[in-house]
UniProtKB/TrEMBL annotation:
UniProt-recorded Gene Ontology molecular function terms: oxidoreductase activity
InterPro entries: FAD-bd_FR_type, FNR_nucleotide-bd, Riboflavin_synthase-like_b-brl, SIP_FAD-bd, SIP_fam, SIP_rossman_dom
Signal peptide: none
UniProt xrefs under Pfam families: FAD_binding_9, SIP
The protein, known as: Siderophore-interacting protein
Domain (FAD-binding FR-type) ranges: 13-136
The species this protein was found in: Stenotrophomonas acidaminiphila
Organism lineage string: Bacteria, Pseudomonadati, Pseudomonadota, Gammaproteobacteria, Lysobacterales
Length: 263
């Protein structure tokens, strides 16, 4: 059996004020924003599911950023902090000086509202990543499960898989028009599951699809990202029902189904 040594890289985060270069609607529920600028120099995102923190202008149109301290981020007294959200870098092209960010559009929230209005020249502050989870490249198969919020990370993972691997992908999306190309050099089987009006938090499309799930031959790594409660339940399904080793699974809640959640 291979060792499957997954590991975490620690990176030094910094704040980079970048500018919108262009904006493009990918699907009915996904907006692509490409940012760049001199401060992008030195940026790195070595892992497909890395997270950066995006800071948006506050209500006064200003960027009020935290100081990173040993006790956590500390904002200046008396000023309204810039709202922030976590996102996965979809693509970093160092040669072109571009960072691609894909935003899910759901009709409300700071991030999706900003993405809908973004015009070339608009400013955005990007911080991080603070760390990068490195998945071993010696698994026989990679199982990727998520909703539309996971598509940037899924697309990156498929593009970076080792040539010997195969991949099984299950993606839940709002409607058929939200399907995206997922190019990869390896053998990939993709199952698109469309909610067609069903609420993302109460949907069970992915759970239903897993009832008859066939475990891939050999050793498989499982990556899961969607609403927090559902992600936890799926992790328990794989570890308990299918007896997958816990360290072969990475399950992350990308959002939470209650008021006040980040988008």
């Amino acid at each position: 059996m291979s060792l499957h040594e997954n590991r975490t890289l620690r990176l030094t985060p910094c704040f980079r004020q970048l500018q919108v270069l262009r904006s493009e609607r990918l699907t009915p529920h996904m907006q692509r924003i490409v940012v760049g600028g001199a401060e992008l120099e030195g940026f790195e995102s070595p892992g497909p599911d890395d997270h950066v923190k995006l800071f948006f202008p506050n209500a006064q149109g200003a960027f009020v950023l935290p100081e990173l301290t040993a006790q956590g981020p500390r904002y200046p007294d008396g000023l309204v902090p810039s709202p922030s959200r976590d996102y996965t870098p979809r693509l970093h092209n160092a040669a072109a000086g571009e960072l691609v960010l894909d935003f899910v559009l759901h009709g409300h929230g700071v991030a999706s509202g900003w993405a809908l209005r973004a015009q070339p020249g608009d400013a955005l502050v990007v911080a991080g990543p603070r760390g990068s989870y490195q998945v071993a490249d010696d698994y026989d198969a990679y199982v990727l499960i998520g909703d539309e919020t996971a598509l940037p990370a899924i697309a990156r993972r498929l593009a970076e898989l080792p040539e010997h691997a195969q991949a099984e992908v299950l993606v839940e999306i709002p409607e058929e028009a939200d399907r995206q190309p997922l190019p990869s050099a390896v053998q990939v089987r993709v199952s698109w599951l469309e909610r067609n009006g069903v609420d993302a938090a109460s949907s069970t499309l992915l759970e239903d699809a897993l009832v008859d799930f066939e475990v891939p031959d050999g050793d498989a790594y499982y990556w899961i990202a969607l609403e927090s409660r559902r992600a936890r339940a799926m992790r328990q399904f794989f570890t308990g029902h299918l007896q997958v080793p816990a360290d072969w699974i990475r399950a992350t809640g990308y959002w939470k189904a209650h008021p006040g959640d980040a988008d």
